[in-house]
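[job 4471] stage=fold_predict status=RUNNING
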Amino acid sequence: TDDELRRHQLILIGTPQRNPLTLESLRDTEATYNRQTNSFERQGVQLQEDSGYLALVSSPWNDLYQVLLVTGETDAAVQRGVDALTLDEPSALLAGPEAVLLEPVIPPVTPAFQQTFTFLDAGTSESTVQGQAGTVSVAFSAPAAAPDSTGEMDLVLSYPDGLDPRRSNIIVDLNGETIATVLIDKEESHRTSYRVDLPWDTLRIGPNTVTLRANLYFEESLVLAPCESPAPERLWLTIHDDSAIRLPQSGGEATGSNLGALPYPFAGLRGIRDTIIVVNALDRDALRAGMLTMIALGRAFGAQNVFTVQSVLEATPETLGDNHVIAIGVPSNTPLGQELDKVLPLVLREGGSRALVEEEGTLTEILDSSRIGAIQEVEVPWAPGRALLSVSGTDAIALGWAADAIVERSLDGNVALLQSATQINTFDLQRVAIGSPEDILEDRFTAQDTRLRTIISISLIAAGALLVLVLYAFRRRIRPRFGIPGRRR
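[job 4471] inference complete, writing structure tokens
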């Protein structure tokens, strides 16, 4: 609405035909658009068909805000603009309020998970510890490691001469568990390499953190008089950003169903790969949820996210193929929605949610008619080894809860159930049968019958309790009274 446009900074993306709002912002630029010929001109010169156009101008709805405009005659032209903004090298060349992209931007093709990467690749720049102690952390993502395999970390260090080799050290923690102590004992003090093994069973699938805790001592402190002390500012240790980590051999368990491992397997160190997102672009709430989900999964230092978007009306197992799938608010009456209903442990319906759970051989149906959001991860049924992430809700508000939870909170299990924006419960639920809940439970009562039978059961229990009380009172009244003569009752 116009009121929403007036109250926000705006990013307008798309061709004028797909996004008419771009025409409003073009009025304040040097470019013009001809509706009849579907062509752009800038300073009297017609642009090539696939030329992307970028502009940063004042918002036509509110002069206090700005609009970032990404447009062009064709979708390919718009894609050029998006690539120029999101990739490191072309974005560094942008200057001024407007830009015309005459050549396609070719993103570098790198795998989602690099087997070997530097600290700088992982987003940790060169760090120097000052004084006697300090800490440096490196965060990265990793796939499942093969059992009994070992990774390596190569630390490239510089430090001053005179460090005590018997006491100066670095404690190495991996995911909160201490795995090594590195003694700083080499005579060469400039860019010296130290190697640490990374055990496979300490690495996690998905996010990992290496913490380096430096403890530094001067050798001369051992011979100082009691009243003397070394100057602590003379102690320092530099951990260079070309220090590297080599992950263990990939393998082990197949693509898991653990929300705690996000953004794995959809994204690794280099961003999102081999992933298709399915969303209803005409539904504003679903579109917002999809954008938040992709931001949360693809947000990393130097990430180059590569993914495809399909409409909920067009997505089928055939079009999705051998890829990871992220389904945002997919209705059950769509082809993909029908496939999801067969494999997701928790199924949302207009009349309430339904979960099928097996515990100790008993099939249990859980019914809930309240407003809830859900985040679920299962294996793609038509592509073994690929993961399917479903973000859904009983309405737009609940869908927003689920999308915000991916961005803001750590999750666990394969199902996260949200009953409010802050009330989140996580479960490990297993779907026990392939098929729709209606087919599996066709001989059992429905959600409406459940509520009715519950009411009847409670009423019968209450009536039975009341009858017991009445009979007890009546029994006391009709019970004969007698006693032994001379003894009072």
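[job 4471] summary: The chain has a mean pLDDT of 81.
[job 4471] exit 0
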